[in-house]
Amino acid sequence: MDLIIKNGILIDNNGCYQANLAIAEGKIKAIFQGNKNFQAERVIDASKKMIFPGVVDTHVHFQLQDLGKIISTDTFASGTQAAACGGVTTVIDFADQTRGISPLKGFNERKKNADSQVAIDYSLHVSKTDIEFLDEIPTLISEGVASFKFFTTYSWRNLDLNDAELLELFQEVKKCRGMVMGHCENDSMVINYRDTLILEGKRDSIFHAHSRPHIVEEEAIQRVMLFAKKTGIHLHLAHITTKEGSDLLYQAKQQGLFVTGETCPHYLLLNEREYKGPEGYLNLMSPPLRHVKDQQALLKRVIDNTINQITTDHCEFSRASKGNGELPFHQVLNGIPGIETSLPLIHDLMINKHKLTYPQLISLMSSKPAKIFGLYPQKGSLRIGTDADIVIFDPCLEKRITPEILHYSIDWNPFLGRKVIGWPIMTIFRGHILCENGKFIGPQNKGRYLKCSYKKALRC
Ligand code: DUC
Ligand code: ZN
Ligand code: ZN
Question: Which residue of 63, 92, 417, 422 is 20 to 30 Å from 179, comparing CA positions?
């Protein structure tokens, strides 16, 4: 064996039990109690530690491009290394179609770009920004794209689809046996609120939230749910932020619609108050941070299993690229970092403060995301024969989040100063130790492209 992990408490979505793991050739070869006389290059004593399957973050943006130009700070290399240090071993990023250009071409370029850089495994959603090239969908699906992202907003960046186009996309993707994933905000409302506020001279960060009130999300979710109902497609809702949005997901599930949804650590842990003060501009993302009552409602919907998974929407920008606080809200680039802190923050919130069980935590962060996008059980489980993507987690280790312990390429983070109990102390990816005690030590570019398969996706 290459590696044996002894005496840890194994957690997967089925339960917790004390066992040893033997790893060889990148796979879990044995799960056993007692001593099996295996020889291994390294034996790790994981007494009093938890053993999780690697986190699967299905919504990240590394080297985000706008009109072909990279605008976010991470590369696929730096982003996946920071991810690994946070216990993440699989990500799904996006191949954003440029309107009028073949999405297959965009997908191939994006994949080529990522392949040589990634430290962990990755896949891609394809964002459709026009209704041309629908004939490429079967090829994209055979290349491993399970999910087609759409935006109901960002018309000023040529990203949105109108209602007729959405309906056509849903019909076509359903026919080709894929799923759709939505960024849901009502475009004309955003434009109207935004332009009115700017005309009134209201430039501060808080007005970003005022320009996208709750109805903006609620209306768009309700509309696309209707399209999903009529076409029978699986709809996945990206970054749900409001009580209203999460209630709509609950009701749709009650009605038997095939719909799943995610929220992010920042919507659970931060609220509108972050927009006050000179650093408020850093926390601009879309949809915006909400109210305490939304945080509570989202929490409830995570606990009652309505919200299926946690993603980060990780999208890192430096202070300078966000304008150093000198720009009006509507000109600030949207997005925040989050991938490295997601597991410890959600562990602290859900296990320490809200008494979720460890299998529930793993379900949210690893198994369900892998199931929804057809990567399970190869990812998101601890089973014999699956990829040895493993996090050794110390549930008692106290950490204060400071720039020194993070691996981002920028000097700020929305969670700086927070204290959490519980931290990943080792990340193993395909049998290689990538991170140990807060240091990235593993091979830098051994990650691989994963084919997602909607046919293998499980109803969650
Ligand atoms: N909003 C998006 O739609 N994408 C990336 C980051 C953000 O805040
Ligand atoms: Zn989005
Ligand atoms: Zn996003």
Answer: 63
